[in-house]
Design goal:
This protein is an alpha+beta fold. The protein contains 5 helices and 13 strands.
Length: about 260
């Protein structure tokens, strides 16, 4: 498999592999699967015995070494921590990086190679996360009638001595404080709303209504709100920000041949 962006290298001859990798390191992503061991020598010393691993070297010279299970890397180096060099030692492929500032060296030695690829990867987009509570607040600000008909927004994230009020607004009955939660309401959420009401009554000398927005309200929360003259408003945030179901991912070890073939 090869195209302008992705190239799978032949596993032999080994000398040509190291030369090719040295030419592209820092310009393209390098992906190496195989059996390897690692030695870290610096302020602390560590050794990683031989095992099936996946090495990824990114274009910014960050290094990530993964085992066949788990999301946490077995070893890693920050971007631009030091120069990266490939060489052949005793007919084995080695990756060496040395941090000149801290005098730390990481050596990864491959005793068996399953796959080597280089990838001219590009990614100019930024991660956008939808559906958190700030997004729900923004949606309610843009659609205030979902709180109640005729509701008008005065302020968001209004600072008080007991924390920022999500939404401060006006209704036909007067001023309203709205606490927004995207999940099920908890007693702590209801108590926080009560603290906001007490702040306005004692500090700003205002009588205000309090509304707690959540997708579900347990009975004990509803009882607390009713006892303290506070209101509940059910808004199903999943209908506003629907979740996309994703297929279960295969385990990482499924992509490795345990026999190294």
């Amino acid at each position: 498999m090869s195209n302008n962006n992705f190239e799978q290298l032949p596993l032999v001859p080994i000398d040509s592999i190291s030369k090719k990798l040295n030419l592209v390191v820092g310009n393209k992503m390098i992906l190496i699967a195989g059996r390897c061991k690692a030695i870290f020598d610096g302020r602390i010393k560590s050794t990683l015995a031989e095992g099936d691993r996946f090495l990824m070297i990114k274009k910014d010279l960050s290094i990530v070494l993964h085992g066949p299970i788990g999301v946490k890397p077995l070893n890693w180096q920050k971007p631009l921590a030091g120069p990266i060099e490939f060489k052949i030692a005793d007919s084995l492929l080695e990756m060496i990086t040395h941090r000149t500032k801290t005098k730390e060296t990481l050596i990864i030695t491959f005793t068996n190679l399953a796959n080597i690829s280089i990838w001219h990867a590009t990614d100019e987009s930024e991660l956008e996360i939808y559906g958190d509570e700030s997004d729900l607040v923004k949606f309610l600000v843009a659609n205030p009638d979902m709180i109640e008909e005729g509701f008008q927004i005065l302020r968001t994230e209004y600072g008080t001595d007991v924390g920022p009020v999500d939404i401060r607004g006006m209704s036909e009955s007067g001023e309203v404080i709205v606490e927004v939660k995207k999940r099920n309401a908890t007693p702590a959420n209801a108590h926080q709303l009560k603290r906001y009401i007490e702040y306005f009554e004692t500090t700003e000398k205002k009588s205000v209504r309090g509304i707690l927005v959540a997708q579900e309200f347990p009975k004990k929360v509803l009882a607390y709100l009713e006892k303290n003259n506070l209101e509940a408003k059910i808004i199903h945030w999943k209908e506003i920000f629907p979740m996309i179901k994703r297929p279960k991912s295969a385990k990482l070890e499924d992509f490795f041949d345990k026999k190294g073939e």
